[in-house]
Amino acid sequence: MPCELSIVIPAFNEGRVLPQTLDTIKAIAEKVTASYEIIVVDDGSTDGTSNVVDSAHDISPQIKGIVLSRHFGKEAALYAGLKHSSGRAVITLDADLQHPPRLIPEMLEHWRKGAEIVHGVKRDRGADSLLHRLSAAVYNTVFSRLSGFDLRGSSDFKLLDRRVVDVLTKSLPEYGRFYRGLSAWVGYRQVSLPFDVAPRKYGESRWGGLSLIRYAIQTVTAFSSLPLMIVPVLGLIMLGIALILGIEAIVSRISGHAISGFATLEITILFSGSLIMIGLGVIGQFMARMFDEIKRRPICLISRVIGLNNSFDTYQ
């Protein structure tokens, strides 16, 4: 049965904080609308997160759940939650309370005034380390320059109108998804709402250095083909070096001086080889994305649902 507001919460091993999260969000949702649902997507947790959802649903039927068959990642969990939601407005936020639920009424107010997407934008990154802040700043700058979309301070804390949800889940079936980028790409009437990131109550961020690098490569190659320009640029650099060395060789021959020897040749070969490998690596990243897309595997598999009428075991 459709409702006015759906709240989608992807969760991976958030069993300790989830009861408090659900109580907090439920109390706020009850104040702003009489028709709502809270959908927790258990992304293959191993700490009993789904048991928390079962217990919460027994007490409050508005709390529902989707249990994925394994850990597919946050993007897949968000997609599953959006796909199963029925609200005319859908809010997505993290389970660790770093996205402040107190802003839900303000998001709904923007939506009721005509906004179709409300972006939660980080004003303060909370307790993030200096390295994490610098990494995020570099990534957001590079992504914005390459894709043309300004995602500085962007987050998964958003409100989407039903029309936008349908576009994201039905018209954009790509396997390699990037929720923040797609929600900016679709257009429509968008509003930004700044917020301060609250400190985590339990545990630490699971985003390490390698995870951030992998994430950056995946998202940039998903939204821009400009990195492929590295290949011809590297070719032009090599051409310039070859011309310089050629001119040097001719001048040395005419002037009677010895032509540069083995060291120059060795450096040139190593340098050119490095540029070739970099170019092949860039092409390889795009080919890997194409390979993932043409396989057309489901974005995620669902083990079971909690409190939902329909259960799909796959998403195409």
How does this structure look, described?
The chain is of the alpha/beta class. It has 2 domains: 5-224 and 297-306, Spore Coat Polysaccharide Biosynthesis Protein SpsA, Chain A; 226-295. The protein has 10 helices and 8 strands. It has helices at residues 18-32, 49-59, 74-84, 104-112, 130-147, 162-171, 179-185, 209-223, 230-255, 262-295, and strands spanning 5-11, 36-42, 63-68, 89-92, 117-124, 158-161, 190-196, 302-306. It has an 8-stranded mixed beta sheet, with helices on both faces. Strand 1 (5-11), helix 1 (18-32) and strand 2 form a beta-alpha-beta unit. Helix 5 (130-147) runs parallel beside helix 8 and helix 9 (230-255) packs antiparallel against helix 10 (262-295). The two termini are 23 Å apart. The model has no long low-confidence stretch (mean pLDDT 77).
Mean pLDDT: 77
Q: In total, how many domains does the architecture comprise?
A: 2
Instruction: Calculate the terminal CA-CA distance, rounded to whole Å.
Output: 23 Å
**H/E series:** EHEHEHEHEHEHHEHHHE
Number of helices: 10
Radius of gyration from CA coordinates: 25 Å
Strand order of the largest sheet: 7-5-6-4-1-2-3-8
CATH architectural designation of the largest domain: Alpha-Beta Complex
Shape: elongated
User: Biggest β-sheet: count, sense, barrel?
Assistant: 8 strands, mixed
CATH top-level class of the largest domain: Alpha Beta
Q: What is the CATH topology classification name of the largest domain?
A: Spore Coat Polysaccharide Biosynthesis Protein SpsA, Chain A
**Could you estimate the helical fraction of the residues in percent?**
40-55%
Low-pLDDT stretches: none
State the fourth-level CATH superfamily of the largest domain: Spore Coat Polysaccharide Biosynthesis Protein SpsA, Chain A
Query: Which structural class do you get from the secondary structure elements?
Result: alpha/beta
* Share of β-strand residues: 15-25%
Number of DSSP strand runs: 8
